[in-house]
Design brief:
The protein has about 150 residues and is mainly alpha-helical. The protein has a single domain, classed as Type II secretion system (T2SS), domain F (Receptor-associated Protein). The chain is built from six helices and no strands. α1 runs antiparallel to α2 and α5 runs antiparallel to α6. The longest helix has about 60 residues. It starts with 5 loop residues before the first helix and ends with a helix.
């Protein structure tokens, strides 16, 4: 998640998956502790799963979900504030859905930017390969022509 270019995209994708799953579970009336356990298993990122586990433990102690998230670098303030507002208003599933939509859009934008960076590099790489193939064909032909002319 800290790798340049790919790290932020992976982080946003994991956060989108976390919030989308949690929103779906809350909307389906799954108990919150059980939903947090399910999300912990579903999220494929160990760093985020650890924070979800801490959030579940905080819920068991009667604290807010956002307490463990606030101090962690993987969770931007947007997520913690939206979850906090959702808890206070009783519309946590709607807030999580909005956050998931936002991060899905961010992932799409990041992949589009990454594609626009990779395309010119791929063109140059393929041009180099084609150039090597052309040179590999033309050099022996010139050698043959030079030998024919000497005869």
């Amino acid at each position: 998640m800290r790798i340049p270019l790919f790290g932020p995209m992976v982080q946003k994708a994991a956060l989108a998956k976390l919030t989308r799953t949690l929103s779906s579970l809350f909307a389906s009336s799954v108990p919150i502790l059980q939903a947090m356990s399910i999300v912990e298993e579903v999220v494929e990122n160990e760093v985020i799963a650890r924070v979800v586990r801490d959030a579940r433990d905080a819920l068991e102690r009667g604290q807010s979900i956002t307490e463990p998230m606030k101090g962690h670098w993987a969770f931007p303030p947007l997520i913690t504030q939206m979850i906090s507002i959702g808890e206070q208003t009783g519309a946590l599933d709607a807030m999580l859905s909005k956050v998931a939509d936002f991060y899905d859009q961010e992932v799409d934008n990041s992949t589009d930017q990454l594609k626009s960076l990779i395309e010119p590099l791929m063109i140059v790489f393929l041009a180099g390969i084609v150039g090597v193939i052309v040179i590999a064909i033309m050099v022996p032909m010139f050698d043959i022509f030079n030998q024919v002319d000497k005869m």
